Amino acid sequence: MEIPVIDFSKLDGEERSATMALLHQACEKWGFFMIENHGIDTNLMDNVKQLVNQHYEANMKKRFYESELPMSLEKKGNITNTDWETTFFVWHRPSSNIYEIQGLSKDLCKAVDDYIDQLIKLAENLSELMCENLGLEKSYIKEAFSGSKGPCVGTKVAIYPQCPRPDLVKGLREHTDAGGIILLLQDEQVPGLEFFKDGHWVNIPPSKNNRLFVNNGDQIEILSNGMYKSIQHRVMAEKDGNRLSIATFYNPAGEAIISPAPKLLYPSHLRFQDYLNLYSKTKFAEKGPRFESAKTLANGH
């Protein structure tokens, strides 16, 4: 099963229509896809990954293996309520806390800040492309996500360490993401990420050539009235190698009110006879404008 790959370099040329159609299909049928030629500095991406791995080795690895989880794995066997991961979370917008997190080097903080500045622009661009495909104003998602200070952006940095018994524990249990658009900078060598599609778990391969992996969160499914899907996924523990995951969430602000976009809703609370009267006049015209007129009728206008 081949995961959709969106080549952003094709959005400015003759292949724009086909690329937009592929993006729409990926959001609608898959809920996840890869992005390449996204414009983010690849040297910066490599630097972020290298610095995070160095931080793990220096500050997180020993503490993880001395924690209760590895010990309980040896004693209790199968573990169902804990994840085999070590993480820290960084807030970026509306304000950043990265320099307040103990143990992070200045080089790591600076690299992450520079990366996030570029990534937010990509997330906003992606949101505009989604809006275009949904027939919404291009700023609709950004405005829907904005509180008084704009959308909320944060990053979960996770390492899934080598696991001696991957048959007994998950790296991260099955879930969907609560927020909006998730952009994942992930390991180039170690697998483990899986998404559920058509009754099967699909293995997401490591990201070669600095591709970014993207998935929809629950709020995109709500805003799109179910057209764009938020898909269940998990991380499997691996016996060989540590898996790196840097997942950035482009989310609504805490006070943002999320509802299906009215333009995407079907007419409701409409007498069938009133619809038939409208239909008789527009039977051979496009259905979309007829539905819009039906919505107006349902609202008493």
TrEMBL record:
GO molecular function: 1-aminocyclopropane-1-carboxylate oxidase activity; 2-oxoglutarate-dependent dioxygenase activity; L-ascorbic acid binding; metal ion binding
Catalytic activity: 1-aminocyclopropane-1-carboxylate + L-ascorbate + O2 = ethene + L-dehydroascorbate + hydrogen cyanide + CO2 + 2 H2O
InterPro entries to which the protein is assigned, alphabetical: DIOX_N, IPNS-like_FE2OG_OXY, IPNS-like_sf, Oxoglu/Fe-dep_dioxygenase_dom, Plant_2OG-oxidoreductases
One GO BP annotation of this record: coumarin biosynthetic process
Ranges where the Fe2OG dioxygenase domain occurs: 149-252
Coiled coil stretches, renumbered: none
Top-level taxon of the source organism: Eukaryota
EC number: 1.14.17.4
Keyword annotations: Ethylene biosynthesis, Iron, Metal-binding, Oxidoreductase, Vitamin C
Family named by the database record: Belongs to the iron/ascorbate-dependent oxidoreductase family.
Protein name: aminocyclopropanecarboxylate oxidase
